[in-house]
Amino acid sequence: MRAASVLLFSWLCLVASVPIPVEELIETVIQDKTQPDILTEGSSLRHMVVELQVELRNMQARLKQAEIQAAEQELGLLQTKTRWEELRQDHADMEKRLNASLMQGEELRQDHADMEKRRNASQMQGEELRQEVTGLSVRLEASERQVEGLKVELGNNRVELSTTQARVTVNRNDLQLLQRRFC
Fold first, then answer.
1. Per-residue pLDDT tens listing for the chain (183 residues)
2. Which has the closest alpha carbon to 154: 81, 104, 92?
3. How many CB atoms lie within 10 A of CB 41?
4. CA distances (Å), 50 to each of 13, 14, 20, 141, 182, in order?
5. Which of 17, 21, 45, 62 gets the most CB atoms within 10 Å of its CB?
6. Number of independent structural domains in the chain
7. Domain assignment of residue 156, given as a range
8. Residue 49 within any structural domain of the chain
9. φ/ψ of residue 73, rounded to 5
10. What DSSP designation does 9 have?
């Protein structure tokens, strides 16, 4: 019976991945032969099993917590990637708008130059042309302000895009560390 108890204890230790000192097993077997106290031995084994079960539950809880953290970080990484893609699209849209504004500005400059030529050619239409030129100048200035505003906004988007890329890299590194730690 005692030998069966020792074998059961050994098996439980192997299952729980707890190393068993060989000397303790030998001493236990020798003591079993010299001291036939079965109840004490059973109680001791039951106590060890309970301790091992508690330790196993604790390890399982820590593993589950680590899995939850890894999942949260993976979700954060996906959200960051999504935001990064949105910012890239916004950046492309801003560049299109900037190019359109630049083209519009160039067209307005050309229109302005044409108006100046017509004004010089025709004194009779002078007053009308001055008003038209003034309107075009206002539009040109407004367009140039708009272009400057778009340039500033584009610069801000570039900075935000760089920051987001850095966060993606950090999150990716953190995720890799967690995966290495728990695999």
1. 555 565 556 656 655 555 555 556 556 655 555 555 777 887 888 888 899 899 999 999 999 999 999 999 999 999 999 999 999 999 999 999 989 888 998 998 998 888 888 777 776 666 776 788 888 888 889 889 988 988 888 888 888 889 999 888 998 898 888 888 886
2. 92
3. 19
4. 12, 15, 16, 82, 26
5. 45
6. 1
7. 72-182
8. no
9. -65, -35
10. H
Would 138 be classed as within a structural domain? Answer: yes
Non-local CB neighbours of 146 within 8 Å, separated by 6+ positions: 101
3-state secondary structure of 19: coil
Give the residue from 105, 175, 159 showing the smallest Cα distance to 137.
105
Six-digit token pair at 122?
A: 């025709």
What distance in Å separates the CA atoms of residue 124 and residue 138, rounded to the nearest whole number?
23
Alpha carbon distance 151, 145 (integer Å):
10
Helices (H), 16-125: 22-34, 38-121
pTM, full prediction = 0.33
Q: Which residue has the tokens 């916004």?
A: 90
Identify whether 112 is part of a domain. Answer: yes
